[in-house]
Design goal:
Number of strands: 22
Strand content: 15-25%
Distance between the termini: 57 Å
Shape: globular
Number of helices: 21
Largest sheet: 7 strands, mixed
Helix content: 25-40%
């Protein structure tokens, strides 16, 4: 053991916590993220957990992982590979080693590497490192034994003691990266405030892990420090995931519009946390209803909208299929409604806990009849707040249902978020009827400039009316089957959505404006595509990025931007849905494609290699 530890300064580092789904790896990873964010580092996280409710202990299918990338400057992704891997058992080592860099440090709990544990993970040899060909630096710690010794006087039962193992691993990682352990203590005491004995036990073990590293130097050659070099905008920051940011964005929009927020929903992975978060805020006037099924959740939201609330329904791809009839009811009645689709792997039940972008065409066209809806795609966990706010603003001001696409990667992933000042956000002004309209108003009387019908909330004197799913006369609002009227109403609904483009920001191009290759993407792949662009530009390859947040309608300068570049590659986590949509909207457009449907985020190096190959083609 060295007399003095060498401390190496790094610009960024990636840590991956892994173990059984009951080992608390998500909590350990989240706490390390919060501790790092508190110290001023930028962060990006990626929880990667199994779809099994509870896989057999020690099995390969039951491994839960949490990866966090911390940096001294801006961090766009959770990282391709990790610098440190915490593997709490052989199954974690076997399934997660592929995410290690060649020089990565591996931390293991030697107490969980018995012959029986190795057999559960289907190892053939007694030495798993030899069998996997691992030559990395390995920190071997008897974590289970040390947790038991640390808490032998605590009075806790054995099961409760074993649940603290994740905190020992966290303490050791905090030592390795010179993190402030007192921040971790505060987080634990806040989390277990109602169970002080559990809080005290976890705090003891957290410090024990930290001291184990400090006293033994953990058999590693050096520890590391990731200083904060990036000057962030002054303000209060927190670590937030996309689902929570979405919920906050909805509440902010309701506050700004002066409306009650209503969520009609049905639980579905990975969208349920939005329902859980909003249910905590009854004191803010939020109403949440967990309905008996998906269509009931959406139909109840349509009813709430008719009654004058800011109405939202949340789901994932399979739920959108079931909601589609009620979504169309909002289309034909021209009522504001926000439909949030947290995309996951499909088709059918597919990969419930994994991420894809395969619902784009479903959002655009997955309903019967001509059914135009604005479609927005959030680009990051923190952008989910702004995207949700914008979706509400468009829905309320243009009297239309709006689809907000997020995905499992950004919904569960987190980043450092500056708490916003709501005064800086634009006003939300629904087009309510005014008393002077009473003598000539009909339910589908429209603003001539925007094509938006006026909103008469039930109970408004002199504006009693009914609307429904049957086609209505544009003039009287009565049921109509006249061919010319139906054609007109179809046109009016489509034109209203297209006119929203007048209010949207123009499509921006980042990177080298005179690029040889324009990268195009949408939604949650922004960070990976931006990182790939940065890497290529550092290599002297002139590259730019145009990333779509607004998909229907497209920004008004979309065709102008895309026609400037000789080579364009559309990268998306589907088989080419955005590329096909752009070809349909912009005649004669030649696009290269990069498509992956793996349920995992893009790997930046794979993007760089693919884009380089396209640029080198004659």
């Amino acid at each position: 053991m060295a007399e003095e530890m060498i401390v190496k300064e790094l610009d960024n580092v990636v840590v991956r916590f892994s173990g059984d789904s009951g080992d608390g790896m998500q909590l350990a990873g989240n706490m390390f993220s919060n501790i790092s964010a508190t110290e001023g580092n930028d962060i990006s996280t990626f929880p990667d957990y199994p779809a099994d409710i509870r896989a057999p202990q020690g099995s390969l299918t039951g491994v839960s992982g949490f990866q966090v990338h911390i940096g001294s400057g801006k961090v766009y992704t959770p990282g391709d590979k990790c610098d440190v891997l915490v593997a709490m058992n052989p199954a974690a080592l076997k399934t997660q080693y592929k995410f290690c860099k060649p020089q990565a440090v591996i931390i293991i709990d030697t107490d969980s590497f018995t012959k029986r544990d190795l057999e559960k993970a289907k190892f053939q040899l007694d030495n798993p490192f030899s069998e996997l060909g691992i030559k990395n630096e390995v920190v071997e710690a008897a974590i289970t034994t040390m947790c038991k010794e640390c808490l032998k006087e605590s009075g806790l039962d054995n099961k409760s003691i074993l649940r603290t193992k994740n905190m020992f691993a966290l303490g050791l990682v905090c030592w390795l990266f010179q993190r402030d352990i007192k921040v971790g203590e505060k987080l634990l005491r806040d989390k277990f405030a109602k169970k002080p004995e559990i809080a005290e036990a976890n705090v003891q073990v957290l410090y024990a892990g930290y001291q184990f590293g400090a006293n033994t130097h953990a058999s590693v050659s050096m520890s590391y420090r990731v200083p904060c070099k990036d000057q962030k905008r002054p303000g209060r920051y927190m670590d937030i995931n996309g689902n929570k940011a979405t919920a906050y964005g909805l509440m902010a929009a309701a506050e700004k519009a002066g409306l009650q927020l209503y969520l009609g929903s049905y639980p579905i992975t990975p969208a349920t946390d939005i329902l859980h978060e909003l249910a905590k805020h009854k004191s803010l006037g939020v109403k949440t209803v967990q309905c008996e099924d998906e269509i009931a959740g959406c139909a109840s939201a349509v009813g709430a909208s008719f009654a004058g609330a800011l109405a939202v329904t949340t789901t994932s791809g399979p739920g959108v299929c079931l909601k589609s009839e009620a979504m169309n009811l909002a289309v034909i009645t021209e009522l504001p409604l926000v439909i949030i689709n947290v995309q996951r792997g499909g088709p059918s039940t597919g990969l419930p806990t994994k991420s894809e972008q395969t619902d784009l065409l479903q959002a655009l066209y997955g309903r019967n009849g001509e059914s135009p809806m604005p479609v927005i795609a959030a680009t990051s966990p923190t952008d989910c707040f702004d995207a949700a706010y914008t979706a509400c603003k468009i829905a309320l001001e243009h009297m239309t249902p709006v689809v907000l696409l997020t995905d499992a990667y950004i919904a569960n992933g987190s980043a450092a978020w500056r708490l916003p000042d709501l005064a800086e956000y634009p006003d939300i002004c629904p087009p309510y009827v005014t008393p002077d309209m009473a003598s000539y108003w009909t339910p589908f009387l429209r603003n001539h400039e925007t094509g938006v019908r006026y909103w008469a909330v039930p109970g408004t004197e002199s504006f009693m009316h009914r609307i429904g799913g049957l086609e209505k006369s544009s003039e009287t609002g009565a049921i109509s089957t006249e061919p010319e009227n139906h054609h007109l109403m179809t046109q009016l609904r489509a034109e209203k959505v297209q006119k929203i483009a007048d209010t949207l920001p123009l499509l921006e191009v980042e990177g080298d404006k005179d690029a040889d290759l324009l990268i195009v993407g949408f939604g949650g792949t922004y960070g990976h595509l931006h990182s790939a662009m940065d890497t290529l530009n550092k290599q002297g390859r002139k590259t730019a990025l145009a990333h779509f947040r607004y998909i229907n309608p497209l920004p008004k300068n979309t065709a102008e931007v895309l026609r400037k570049y000789k080579k364009i590659v559309v990268a998306e986590q589907n088989m080419g849905q955005l590329a096909g949509y752009l070809r349909m909207k912009i005649e004669g457009l030649h696009l290269h494609q990069f498509n992956q449907v793996k349920g995992q985020p893009f790997v930046v190096q794979e993007l760089v290699d693919a884009f380089t190959k396209i640029m080198d083609e004659k």
